[in-house]
Each structure stands twice: as C-alpha cells, then as structure tokens.
Amino acid sequence: MGLLERNPGHGHPLRPEFRLTSLGCSAAAVAHEFQTAAGKADQDLLRRSWTLPVLTSLGTPHRFNDIKRNLPSISDRALSQSLKTMEVRSWVCRSIDDSARPPRSVYAAVNAGAVISRAAAREFRFV
Fold first, then answer.
1. How far is it, in rounded angstroms, from Cα 52 to Cα 124?
2. Which of 2, 17, 25, 82 has CB atoms 3.0–4.6 Å from 11's, for a disulfide?
3. Is the pTM of this model over 0.85?
4. Judging by beta carbons within 10 Å of its beta carbon (0-12, 13-18, 19+), is residue 78 exposed, middle or buried?
C-alpha cells in the first residue's frame, strides 16, 4: 500500500526496521484525527467494518437507499445495523421526513460522527 518502507542501513536482515512513508504519515494523521474524535469509549465502533464507509457517505444527510447506492457492496442488514449502532452512540441522527409519502427516514452524521465524516470524506472514497 506504500505506507511503510524499510529503514535503509538499519536493522538486522531477519528483523528489519521500517518507517512511515509520506503517504503513511498522512494516513497516520487521519487515523489520529479519527481516534481523537471518537474518544476512548467509542474506539470499538471505529473498528467495525462499515462504520467509516457509512460515515463517509453521510457528508450530507441522506435517506437509506441513497446511502445504499453509494455503497453497492453493503447489504441492507449490515447498513441497518451500522446506522442503528451509530444512532445509539449519537454519531448519527435519524429524522423522519413527513412531507414525503410514505414518510422516509433521513440520516445525518452528528457529534463525533460528523467530525469523522468530514475527515474521512477528505481522504477516502469507498466504492
């Protein structure tokens, strides 16, 4: 992935040393931003498989099917569970659009979820 490189001239051949490349340094800075926004209590949420892709697609409020269209490989069940989990942790806010027939749910990233969503949208594109 180009995040690490061997440290030239250092380390034993069987135990080489590695250092971050410039790409690795920028990835580490983004990861630090995610961890700082999440806090210690919500670190496990960052490690779940669909948290970052879903938050990345919530740069602006979207309906369920819009999020699904942005992430074609996610199942309905996985998206639903991910949104519910993030809603319980106050990373996502679900509101009902009563003007639509039938009424539809609209999801938006809030609090730590909004910070992570903005940082992820700057750096990543999930397809």
1. 9
2. 17
3. no
4. middle
Assess contact for 68 and 79: CB atoms under 8 A.
yes
116 touches 52 (CB < 8 A): yes
- How high is the mean pLDDT in each 10-residue block of the chain (127 residues)? 81 77 87 84 86 90 92 93 94 89 91 88 65
Helix, strand, or coil here: 93?
A: strand
User: What proportions of the chain, in percent to the nearest 5, are helix, strand and coil?
Assistant: 50, 25, 25
Within 10 A of 109 (CB to CB), how many other CB atoms are there? Answer: 26
Taking each helix axis from N to C end, the angle separating 111-123 and 22-38, rounded to the nearest 10 degrees, works out to: 170
**Rounded to an integer, what distance in angstroms lies between the CA atom of residue 42 and that of residue 116?**
12
